[in-house]
Specification:
Layout lengths: L3 E3 L6 E3 L12 H12 L23
Antiparallel strand pairs: 1-2
Length: 62
């Protein structure tokens, strides 16, 4: 029995088999929707901003 996964775009059940050339997506449409999200930077890795070590320093002032 082939493994079934959820399409990342529409959550439809997708068989994880070599004949499915769009896996893990269910279709070319869902694959292109995902590609478009990456291209428009809709997906981002969260980054914790560190304060600049030079900001707010009183050293050198006097």
């Amino acid at each position: 029995m082939p493994k079934t996964v959820a399409c990342p775009t529409c959550a439809a059940d997708v068989e994880w088999v070599p004949k499915n050339k769009y896996r893990p997506f269910c279709s070319e449409r869902c694959k292109l929707i995902d590609l478009g999200a990456w291209a428009t930077e809709a997906y981002r890795v969260p980054v914790k901003e560190e304060p600049d070590p030079g900001e707010g320093s009183t050293q050198g002032q006097g």
